[in-house]
Amino acid sequence: MTIPELVRAVTKLRPPFLEDLAPSDIGIILAAAKQLRFLPNSVVTNQGHPATRLFMVVSGGARSFYLTQGGQKLHVHSYPPGEMFGGMAIVARASEYVVSTEAVKDSHMLVWDRARAREFVLQYPKLLDNALTIAADYLNISIATQVALSCHSARQRLAEVLVNLASGVGRRVPGGVELMVRNEDLATAANITPFTVSRLISEWQRVGVLAKTRGKVLLPSPERLMLQDI
């Protein structure tokens, strides 16, 4: 893909990491990246290995996981096109990847080496602001997950996740609070299956407690969700 084609493709994805940057600056940043392809299930980063590269998903998708001492593979987060991972590569001190990340389908990614990524963060302070915002969103998701795990039923856990995400990373829009979240992420956070998430959200949508579109959930009143028979 040529640089102009790459800029057009990435701009359509509206990546949070590049938010509020001038198109010319985005072009410079993208031109410095390598374009790599990863086959399904191939590991892109390894937990505990030096964080030497920063990644952006352009097509396909990826997911991170934490490998326990007992060998259990715990899903942490999913990355659709437009999202970044490997953020430890832009930390000032040399660091290690906290989790492993693998491609979930045939994927194309942009890759920056640590030195170049650090140069851009220093040259464009907005990149660091965006990275901190993304990290804060992940922390809020983690908190919502921990709170949800204290609830007993699947219905309670999903409701807790949605309400906590609304207060943490929700965006006020006309009609309520909007969440940019997918069923797969809600399932992971609530420790239930994506099928159960889909069923419960469809049920709540029928009674007007929320509205669901692809990748988004609108809560007219998050408190009302907790008043349902959960």
Which keywords apply here?
230 residues, alpha+beta, Jelly Rolls, Arc Repressor Mutant, subunit A, 2 domains, four-stranded antiparallel β-sheet, 24% strand
Write the topology of this structure.
Blueprint: H1 3-13, H2 23-31, E1 34-38, E2 43-45, E3 53-59, E4 62-67, E5 73-79, E6 84-85, E7 100-103, E8 107-113, H3 114-123, H4 125-148, H5 154-168, E9 171-173, E10 176-180, H6 183-190, H7 194-206, E11 211-213, E12 216-219, H8 222-226
Antiparallel strand pairs: 1-8, 2-7, 3-6, 3-8, 4-5, 4-7, 9-10, 10-12, 11-12
How would you characterize the overall build of this protein?
This protein is α+β, with helices and mostly antiparallel strands. The chain folds into 2 domains: 3-123, Jelly Rolls (Sandwich), CATH 2.60.120; 138-226, Winged helix-like DNA-binding domain superfamily/Winged helix DNA-binding domain (Arc Repressor Mutant, subunit A, Orthogonal Bundle). The protein has helices at 3-13, 23-31, 114-123, 125-148, 154-168, 183-190, 194-206, 222-226, and strands at 34-38, 43-45, 53-59, 62-67, 73-79, 84-85, 100-103, 107-113, 171-173, 176-180, 211-213, 216-219. It has a 4-stranded antiparallel sheet. A 4-stranded antiparallel sheet has the order 2-7-4-5. It has a 4-stranded antiparallel sheet with strand order 9-10-12-11, with helices on one face. A hairpin with a 2-residue loop joins strand 11 (211-213) and strand 12 (216-219). The longest helix is centred in the middle third of the chain and has 24 residues, at 125-148. The model has no long low-confidence stretch (mean pLDDT 85).
